[in-house]
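Fill in residues.
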């Protein structure tokens, strides 16, 4: 029986709810407006980054709504509620890795507190009290390491460091590169881009295939299909599942499974890749756009039911956002799956989704990060990772000119999106432009997700190969 059917840590029954609508806190929802209000009233800003699919967020929100906490927030802070998927640039700016994520700015607008996870009422009240009394400190996030040169020496040093880090992270019992690294970073989700890169390079193959097998064993839902976001490998005596299923994880697991099939010839990997595609089609497809919704929300009670009872229950609903970055990543995976299977339905899905993103979300030299299917609104223009991954998906589909056009959009980039763009340009024969972009990259030596490093390595590799 699958581990997810015998969870030892059971969270209370959850149904789909929109926290902003049921909250009694007068949340601001717009960053600029919150800062203006804080400046006018001389108050610090309490920022809560949430996700509609996140189970731990439900627990934290119960704490936020308790009378003492709510009153303290309302009287002494400007509460700002931001969606970690839709407001991704701000989430990453403050060092967001997972949800719930809380950041508190002092009266001067500088971050003085930042923490992940659901804290209890007493701890939160103590933190808020320290901020009010101006007794907090904050260690700023390092800006990263500038690349000194873009030749073979830099590539080898980065690759060697990357492999050492993966060896430290690797869990020989449960699989995955999710244990804390030497830099202290912990990442609980699967790392499909890392899996794919290593398999293509012939590196750590045994560890990768073991990890993919464990992801199938622990995270794949044999009843509805699809991969859960993660289980917590750090717990010694029980498993906690984030029982949401995100497009990001499932799209990129298709890529890793396809590569595992290419490498080994084992049909089961291809079978799970196809089952994951069918899961996306059944549960996350938005028919109007031809793209996929962001995630299927968490519901531990539903997933703990035996199959015969699940058949009588309605599955958890999806989030309402179509997000460019995650759909572009998924398009890349589907195109790779199509090349292996020759199934035209897979190619049609990839092409239709690309067409929607270009025609429906790329407007007036702006690529909008998301389209909310419930409200009809588009939001967050020209976030770097949307630009980068859409350009990659277009290049993967053979649309080189359009890929380069998207790559030229002015955007707010981080080192990951710059690495992806450099990879796209290097693949397109635009070596000089790729070099120019990489000179702006400041690599985070304590990166949390190993997948973030892969595109930088691939870009440097291409530049070396092409002289």
């Amino acid at each position: 029986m699958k581990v997810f059917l015998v969870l030892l840590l059971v969270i209370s029954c959850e149904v789909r709810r929109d926290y902003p609508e049921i909250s009694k806190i007068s949340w601001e929802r717009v960053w600029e407006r919150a800062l203006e209000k804080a400046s006018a009233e001389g108050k610090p800003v309490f920022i809560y980054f949430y996700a509609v699919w996140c189970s731990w967020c439900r627990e934290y929100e119960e704490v936020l709504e308790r009378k003492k906490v709510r009153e303290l927030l309302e009287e002494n802070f400007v509460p700002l509620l931001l969606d970690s998927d839709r407001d991704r640039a701000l989430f990453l700016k403050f060092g967001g890795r997972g949800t719930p994520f809380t950041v508190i700015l002092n009266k001067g607008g500088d971050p003085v507190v930042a923490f992940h996870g659901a804290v209890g009422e007493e701890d939160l009240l103590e933190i808020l009290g320290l901020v009010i009394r101006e007794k907090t400190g904050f260690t700023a996030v390092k800006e990263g390491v500038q690349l000194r040169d873009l030749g073979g020496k830099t590539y080898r040093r980065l690759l060697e460091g990357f492999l050492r880090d993966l060896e430290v992270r690797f869990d020989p019992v449960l699989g995955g590169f999710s244990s804390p690294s030497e830099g202290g970073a912990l990442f609980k989700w699967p790392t499909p881009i890392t899996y794919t890169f290593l398999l293509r390079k012939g590196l750590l193959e045994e560890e990768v295939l073991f990890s993919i097998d464990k992801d199938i064993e622990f995270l794949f839902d044999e009843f509805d299909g699809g991969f859960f976001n993660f289980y917590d490998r750090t717990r010694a005596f029980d498993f906690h599942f984030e029982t949401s299923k995100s497009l990001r994880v499932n799209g990129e697991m298709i890529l890793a499974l396809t590569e595992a099939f290419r490498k080994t010839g084992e049909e089961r990997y291809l079978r799970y890749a196809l089952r994951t595609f069918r899961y996306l089609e059944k549960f996350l497809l938005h028919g109007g756009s031809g793209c996929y919704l962001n995630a299927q929300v968490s519901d531990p009670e539903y997933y703990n039911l035996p199959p015969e009872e699940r058949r009588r229950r309605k599955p958890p609903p999806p989030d309402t956002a179509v997000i460019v970055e995650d759909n572009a990543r998924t398009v890349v995976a589907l195109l790779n799956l199509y090349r292996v299977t020759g199934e035209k339905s897979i190619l049609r899905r990839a092409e239709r989704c690309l067409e929607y993103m270009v025609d429906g979300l790329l407007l007036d030299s702006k690529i909008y990060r998301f389209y909310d299917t419930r409200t009809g609104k588009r939001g967050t223009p020209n976030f770097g990772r949307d630009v980068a991954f859409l350009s990659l998906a277009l290049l993967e589909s053979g649309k080189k000119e359009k890929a380069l056009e998207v790559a030229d959009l002015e955007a707010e980039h981080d080192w990951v999106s710059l690495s992806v763009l450099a990879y796209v340009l290097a693949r397109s024969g635009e070596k000089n432009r790729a070099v120019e972009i990489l000179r702006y990259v400041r690599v985070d030596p304590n990166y949390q997700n190993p997948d973030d490093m892969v595109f930088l390595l691939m870009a440097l590799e291409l530049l070396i190969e092409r002289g």
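The first helix runs from residue 19 to 22.
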